[in-house]
Amino acid sequence: xxxxxxxxxxxxxxxxxxxxxxxxxxxxxxxxxxxxxxxxxxxxxxxxxxxxxxxxxxxxxxxxxxxxxxxxxxxxxxxxxxxxxxxxxxxxxxxxxxxxxxxxxxxxxxxxxxxxxxxxxxxxxxxxxxxxxxxxxxxxxxxxxxxxxxxxxxxxxxxxxxxxxxxxxxxxxxxxxxxxxxxxxxxxxxxxxxxxxxxxxxxxxxxxxxxxxxxxxxxxxxxxxxxxxxxxxxxxxxxxxxxxxxxxxxxxxxxxxxxxxxxxxxxxxxxxxxxxxxxxxxxxxxxxxxxxxxxxxxxxxxxxxxxxxxxxxxxxxxxxxxxxxxxxxxxxxxxxxxxxxxxxxxxxxxxxxxxxxxxxxxxxxxxxxxxxxxxxxxxxxxxxxxxxxxxxxxxxxxxxxxxxxxxxxxxxxxxxxxxxxxxxxxxxxxxxxxxxxxxxxxxxxxxxxxxxxxxxxxxxxxxxxxxxxxxxxxxxxxxxxxxxxxxxxxxxxxxxxxxxxxxxxxxxxxxxxxxxxxxxxxxxxxxxxxxxx
Length: 533
Fold this sequence. Notes:
Domain D-3-phosphoglycerate dehydrogenase ASB: 335-443
Subunit structure: Homotetramer.
CATH superfamily of the largest domain: NAD(P)-binding Rossmann-like Domain
Helix content: 25-40%
InterPro entries: ASB_dom_sf, D-isomer_2_OHA_DH_cat_dom, D-isomer_DH_CS1, D-isomer_DH_NAD-bd, NAD(P)-bd_dom_sf, PGDH, PGDH_ASB_dom
Shape: elongated
Enzyme class: oxidoreductase
Number of helices: 16
CATH topology of the largest domain: Rossmann fold
Protein name: D-3-phosphoglycerate dehydrogenase
Oligomer: single chain
């Protein structure tokens, strides 16, 4: 049974875009080989990526499913920036590849550009500059408006939204917002009143968006929402192209419903359709949100340090698809992951090798596993699916692979009569039959406590070559099994018998090597399975 757990081994990294030199320096100082090949075409990237454990990108490189499927060794995609919409996260997750961003690297720069566009919209600064350069002196044409006393609607109250709010409050703006994740009491602590979108639209003099681009945010500002806004509302988008419906924005600008737009991002970059860029009431930039020396240095440094910390097993920061790994960087968690994988492998060998399973229930018990149910669930599923013909699952990919196979995975945690020690219980359903096992850690070693109702007098040490068999209890059983094993040259190294004395029971034998054929056991036992852990 192969194990996949932190720390992750990264020996070589490809940097496919212009990233601050400190990124390469930090990686190389920590023993990671770095190759820089900016501006590669898709086919070149597909041909190149197979040789690397890691890939560092900014926003231009499109890490598509084709690229990911060509990456036979890839373990991590590091985005030196915030948004990961240029990375096929689902394809990466399915293949067990960590996608990591630098969540705070460009926060200040993006917030400052947003504020600059808000101020430029209010005073027509770029248009006035161009008029002056054309030799004009036209004071009346560029009549502006104060920001003081105006209402700013902020869609998305994460790091950047918060920084924009605090800065624009210093201009005397009232800040209101919408965010389905940030608690209202949190945003209220930094001066933003949350409300529904229907409440927000008619109050805003200015609107700025700071959300990721996803199905729920695509076209967030559209014909319907513009119609609910004040006539002449001004909008800013320094987040992602597509959050504002570009066709709807153009219609609102033409009708005067929208009084101006500041755009740093577009659906297509660079935009082939110039209608918005050329509109007199639009201020546009070529995606400059993170284009400051400070942001580039910070993002390059952050992504390098995050990769190094992951490799060294210190921590996992910025993983957008592998949050389950964040709690797996201690030696204690490694032991529990081994236990989960081993329990899953035992059940897979004893039950699911004969019939497919449809439902899995994983229960953790005890104080020490109170916050560990997530990675324990993934670990158990790795053990259950590791021998299936679905690739090689790991803690990142396994729940996605299980979902694709239609396996329902349930997890929960319960206290164990106030005890501090932990127990992991697993029950699977296969073709109407239930199979279950439970285990724990004793003296730093994963052990099996119970299998399908048979509680072992001496817990099974889940290491080495193990033979599990189900048979009716009798005085002749164990000598007969030992004799059969001896005839094949296999020696018994340990024996775990059930506490019960009657009925069909499960036994476990530790062996010097696996049997070449389990058929010889058939006259002696009802079921048998073996595995190496």
